[in-house]
Amino acid sequence: MLPVERLHLDHVLQTVSVLESVVLRSFGPEGGQMLFIRDTGQAMLSRSGTKILTALRLEHPLARMVVECVLKHSAATGDGSKTFILLLASLLRMIHTTACKVPNVSHMYNSREAAVASTARRLAKKLVAFAFEELDDIFAMGVAPYGCCLSQEDYILTAQSQTNNPCVQKLLATFFHSRLGGTHSDLFSHLTSEMLINWIVRGEHPSKSLHFIYDNLPALHTPVSGFSISCSRLIEGQVIHRDFAAPCPQSDQQPVKAVILTGFLHPEVLCAGEVLQLGCEDNGTENSSWKQSIMQYSTWAESSLECAIARLRSLGVSVILSAVKQSAAALALAAQAEICIVECISEDELFLFGHLSGVSPVTDCRMIKPDDIALLTFCRPILLGSQRYVHVAFQDLDKRLIIKPCSLIICGAGEGQTDQYVCAFRDAIRMQLSTWRPIGTAASKQTSQLSKSESLHAEDQICKSLSFQQSLMGPGCVVPAGGTFELLLHHALLQHGRSVSGKADVDRFAVSQILANALLSIPKNIYSHSSRRFLETQTRLMGFINKQKHNTNLEQNLEEGIGNQHCCREINTPSEVFMLDLGLESLSCKYQLLLAVLQCVSNLLQVDTLLHINTTSHT
Amino acid sequence: MSRLVQKSPSLCTDLPLNNSDVCNKLRLLKELLKSCYGPTGRLKQVHNNIGGHVVTTSTSSVLLPALSSSQPLVNLIRSCILNHVSRFSDCGLFAAILCLTLIEEAKLSGLRRNVSIKVNKHLLGMCSSYLQEEDCGCRVVLDFCSSMNLITLTRSVIYSKPACVLAEVEALHMSKLAVQAFLLTVPCNSPGTVRLGRIVTVGVEGHPVLNSAVLTGLLVEVHDHLSLRMIKSMQTNPLRVVLFSASLAGDLSDLGDGIIEAHTGVDTDSQILDQLLEFCKHVVEDEVKLFVCQKVLHPVLQQYLRNHGVIVIDRVGVALMEPLTLLTGAQPVATLHTTIPAKAYGTVRSLSVKEFGSKTMLHLQPAAESAVCTMVVCHRNETMLSELKAVCQQAEHVLRLTLKEPSALLGGGCTETHLAAFIRNKSLNEVSQTLTAVECSQSEYLLGVEGFCRSLESVAAALQHDGGNSLTDLTHAHHWTLPADVTTENMEESLTFCGCGLTRNSPNMKWTHLNTKYPQFSPAPALRDSTVQPHVLDSFTAKLNALQVAVETANLVLDVRYVIQDTN
């Protein structure tokens, strides 16, 4: 008989609460770092929820399921893994209390626990359905009007005046605050936004450039340990993470001509699998002319090498970027011809170099064409920490690509720290990518259409909102951070609940209540060090909402029929300034987070039994 | 069969800094490092449990790698400091002690962690901007017209490593040599970007330290003594040199991955050797007198070359190849079939044989001006020698750093006490402006400031190991040491100079013990009297970075709330 473990809601709640207590240590402005020691003894620092959860190496199957859900979510958005756990725990708690309150009416269940479990299951299903049907509208009505939209110009505008349009920088600062702590968030958001300004192609959708940065990140950054973090900086051009194979001659001629080489300079006489026979005279006339000495082969190889070098020399090439290791003879001859060789460059770096210089790699030096020669403004060694790398900058970039390529140098006291910064940087780019994703997928739109036809009696306002939902929650929508989103949604859900409470739809009311109350746990934890701050923020926000509503009503009365576009306006009214102090976060990430958490809750509650299978080791 | 082993769950520690075991370990580490600090620091013997080599040391670069601990926080601090040491070679112990004291002070103050972190970061910014200011009271601008300050700087590096066991005269001798060697690596008349040359260090065991010397050119160890006899007959000046970077042992390496089938009667070895001999004939015809090979040279070729009056040095190793190319101006050759172009040959002015103890070395003098020199370091036994060699390299590094930033900081603890007094004064005066930036109350801020300043002062006090008292004066805020056997009554007579030697006892000077309350004052910079030179100087770049790394590491440790150890 297999060992069977019945799962109760209590167990699920307990497991998730344990995870919550771990994650809470690094949540919010008062949270700190987690130090993780790998099995190799290597230290790693992190404030990222995914890193913490994977580091725990959990055994409990339920916990592992939760961690998997978190990983999936953060792989998609790059943000929100700690909030995921907190929201999950708080939702389960709310469901638990609601389910316990429901009187045990049915006699179908033989125990109270089973009754509670089934109520919880039903609630969870309702929650998911609710989210798919109505969350879009609630977002559009209750949250989006208080946010603002990033536009493509924001990335460019920041270049001219850093203080004028701080949206992108605010968004990044909030993200880095949650990932690296308050002390370094300004430095990193500044570096990242500067990097984005340099890399984003004007007139193109930002997500395309963001994708490019994300894909090429390994080639775009250099971690340097042993220095203070304040030494982190951007440098022009590209850093190739290899050293010159031979000491490079200093020449001031411009431009520096370079080629990308993927093959060997020194030709291979014998390929693998070929057989060279020496000294067999009866083997036909062909071989007899070659039979004299093995040295002829290497003579031929060397003269071929000399030809290749001479060809490069005649083309004026002074730098060879090679993907493979070249022979000692090739290095010596190249050094004599004053050509520098950089060997064993990784594919990523060569790809980036090719992209930026506009040339394609060649396999054989004898086939080289003038088109294959890249023009560089300089190519010189750069000493970063203990390593010497090759630093290149490109010519004529303004004509081909409208970007200023630059590379990020990330300094930290140890390897653990630089790793952490690099991860945070990568996730910041991913977070921005998901910010640009439109909210509400095609599927959810369909369901919302359905729900519209279903509930024709729904309020007019919602129907109206659906028509311009597109404009309200376009890609790039951001809302003030610091719990504002949760408080806004809490408020909107309560309003919504009140509007449906007149109907006989009890479950819908209960469900929106549960969600609304669960959301409050996030701002409560953010201000865990002083509950006064929490109340202050809440009252300030409520006051703001009421005032806003008043204004909107006036506006709507005045200009009836004109689309409700005011959500995307510039932030300039003084009442909104306080929201900026809190920072910004992406609405799209929040939306996806909420859906993911609700799905995870219903998944968790569907499980009722654990079967432990013993696999005996087979011989 | 698959060998799947279940991963065991990780070991977790919540709030490690509240754990008394962790705190004890951190305190132990601090006491251990403190006892090594400074010229009178105590030595530590490091030996492993399997009868390995015993190392006697007090330098952080040797000590810290040996101090691995099961406690992750200790390892975190260790690796941060070691990274600093590997970049700057100096001020490792300073950084470690400051970091550990800051952690302890932050715990003692009872402030919220985030507040201590913010205050520390703010004060660090204040310190580094003050140190870079023009009228900073503890910075000395180095004058490259005189070697005086350079020697003082080097002497401070060398003298602060008691494991070298150097007498005063010996330390001075070594620092003079280090500065001389450093100056030799700076090329005199090359326009454009200057590339520094190389110092090759050769250690000789069993000789007195005063026999150490710096020679221009290179010393190369010779394995056979046959060729040395021929040197006396060599009078032609200058001598032609060829440098070979490929192996000449008679192997074929770059033919590819195919299979070679040799039938009977075919002797590939002799074919190759013939080719090599042919090649050597060319070399001899080109009147090469010195043949240097990075790898192994076939004995037949050695014999052939020697018979034709060529001096052969093989197996020099890759490390010596770069200085050799710099010295001779030759380009390494790796091809056998092509004729060697004339410009690939290099020259040396003269060759001579030098004997140091058991070692017989060939001395290569450069034909033209070159930035390569050799430092022969002698010491009585192996451990002291290895420590001294390491120290000389550190000194070279510190001197090179001065080229980027030509200044130094006052040593002997004076910089620390001066900074502490400055911070106390400045933060009290500007308290209202900073509170908004740091986001805490005034009392919290002042507590944080006090902790930071006390940490700085306790590093200065750690220089004292013989039971003496550490004092600071109330005008310049320099660091003074009162020997243990002196009573407070005749204190004033026994204090003559401060730690760095820049200020001297004057009648109306007042002192106070370190880590006691004293009225805040603005520390005056010491009078710049050209006759008084500081006796102890520290590297500016290294100390500034050490300060930053120490505070950042302390902040990091304070920020750790949870430790997860993977025990697989």
Global Rg of chain B: 30 Å
- Count of DSSP H/I helices of chain A: 25
Strand order of the largest sheet of chain B: 7-13-12-8-10-11
Beta strands of chain B, count: 20
CATH class of the largest domain in chain A: Mainly Alpha
Number of strands of chain A: 17
Q: Please list the strands of the largest sheet of chain A in the order they lie side by side.
A: 7-13-12-8-10-11
Low-pLDDT stretches of chain A: 159-164, 282-291, 441-472, 558-575
Specify the biggest β-sheet of chain A.
6 strands, mixed
Helical content class of chain B: 40-55%
User: Which regions of chain B have little confidence, pLDDT < 50, spanning 5+ residues?
Assistant: none
Write the layout of secondary structure elements.
The complex is a heterodimer of chains A (619) and B (568).
Chain A: E1 4-6, H1 9-24, E2 33-37, E3 43-46, H2 49-55, H3 61-77, H4 81-101, H5 112-143, E4 148-149, H6 152-160, H7 167-180, H8 182-199, H9 206-215, H10 217-220, E5 221-225, E6 233-236, E7 238-240, E8 256-261, E9 275-278, H11 284-288, H12 295-314, E10 319-322, H13 328-336, E11 340-342, H14 347-357, E12 374-384, E13 387-394, H15 397-400, E14 406-412, H16 415-435, H17 442-454, H18 460-467, H19 469-472, E15 477-480, H20 484-501, H21 506-519, H22 521-526, H23 531-558, H24 574-581, E16 584-586, H25 587-606, E17 609-611
Parallel strand pairs in A: 5-14, 8-10, 10-11
Antiparallel strand pairs in A: 1-17, 2-3, 4-15, 6-14, 7-13, 8-12, 12-13, 15-16
Helix pairs in contact in A: 1-4, 3-25, 4-5, 4-21, 4-25, 5-17, 5-20, 5-21, 5-25, 6-8, 7-8, 7-16, 9-16, 12-13, 20-21, 20-23
Chain B: E1 11-14, H1 20-34, E2 44-46, E3 55-57, H2 60-66, H3 72-88, H4 92-109, H5 113-132, E4 139-141, H6 148-159, H7 168-184, E5 198-205, E6 213-216, E7 218-221, H8 226-230, E8 239-244, E9 259-262, H9 268-285, E10 290-293, H10 299-307, E11 311-313, H11 318-328, E12 346-356, E13 359-366, E14 372-379, H12 382-404, E15 407-410, H13 414-429, H14 431-438, H15 442-461, E16 469-473, E17 479-482, H16 491-494, E18 511-513, E19 537-539, H17 540-559, E20 560-565
Parallel strand pairs in B: 5-14, 8-10, 10-11
Antiparallel strand pairs in B: 1-20, 2-3, 4-15, 6-14, 7-13, 8-12, 12-13, 15-19, 16-17, 16-18
GO molecular function (chain B): ATP binding; unfolded protein binding
InterPro entries (chain B): Cpn60/GroEL/TCP-1 (IPR002423), GroEL-like_apical_dom_sf (IPR027409), GROEL-like_equatorial_sf (IPR027413), MKKS (IPR028790), TCP-1-like_intermed_sf (IPR027410)
Protein name (chain B): McKusick-Kaufman/Bardet-Biedl syndromes putative chaperonin
